[in-house]
């Protein structure tokens, strides 16, 4: 094997193959194994973080459901409270209006009674006054001579005084 730059010797090829295998074993032990251990730890850490995130999401969804349920309960209670307040207010309104109507009817009835009594009193006073005028006219007629002119003047005086009394 002379003069050839590239010579293929089986011994060199065998030594090169052994060197590659030894180098691969050394790299595997000192480089690939620690890197694989770091990658496995990192993968486990990522998996654990993912599980924690999923649990946090699940807890958050449960809290949202609880919150929505509580809000629905609050809305129901609010609606019931409003309905009850409206019912009470309506009953109070009806009671107040009923009392006011009753009192108004009493006031109107009292006013009618007072007006009737005042009317009867005025009528009695007018009748009394007319009777006094008639008595005075009768007295004058009886005291005086029966003359047509005197009767006519007394009648006119009676009518004018009776008209004044009725107007007042």
Question: Can you walk me through this structure?
Answer:
The chain starts with 9 loop residues before the first helix and ends with a helix. The longest helix is centred in the middle third of the chain and has 134 residues, at 10-143. α1 (10-143) runs antiparallel to α2. The protein has one domain (10-167). It is rod-shaped, with a radius of gyration of 64 Å. It is mainly alpha-helical. It has helices at residues 10-143, 148-167. Helices cover 92% and strands 0% of the residues. It contains two helices and no strands.
List the helices and strands and how they pair.
Layout: H1 10-143, H2 148-167
Helix pairs in contact: 1-2
Note the main attributes of this structure:
mainly alpha; 168 residues
Number of strands: 0
Major sheet description: none
Q: Give the CA-based shape.
A: rod-shaped
Q: Which range best describes the helical content: under 10%, 10-25%, 25-40%, 40-55%, 55-70% or over 70%? A: over 70%
Please provide a brief summary of the model.
This protein is mainly alpha-helical and 168 residues long.
């Amino acid at each position: 094997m002379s003069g050839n730059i590239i010579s293929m010797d089986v011994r060199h090829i065998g030594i090169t193959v052994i060197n590659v295998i030894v180098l691969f074993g050394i790299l595997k032990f000192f480089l690939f194994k620690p890197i694989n251990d770091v990658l496995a730890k990192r993968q486990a850490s990522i998996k654990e973080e993912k599980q924690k995130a999923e649990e946090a999401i699940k807890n958050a969804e449960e809290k949202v459901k609880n919150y929505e349920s509580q809000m629905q309960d609050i809305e129901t209670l609010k609606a019931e409270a409003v309905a009850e307040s409206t019912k009470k207010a309506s009953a109070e309104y009806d009671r107040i209006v009923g009392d006011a109507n009753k009192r108004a009817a009493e006031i109107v009835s009292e006013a009618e009674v007072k007006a009737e009594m005042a009317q009867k009193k005025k009528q009695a006073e007018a009748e009394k006054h007319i009777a006094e005028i008639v008595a005075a006219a009768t007295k004058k007629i009886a005291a005086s001579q029966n003359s047509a002119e005197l009767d006519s003047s007394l009648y006119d005086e009676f009518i004018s005084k009776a008209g004044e009394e009725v107007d007042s």
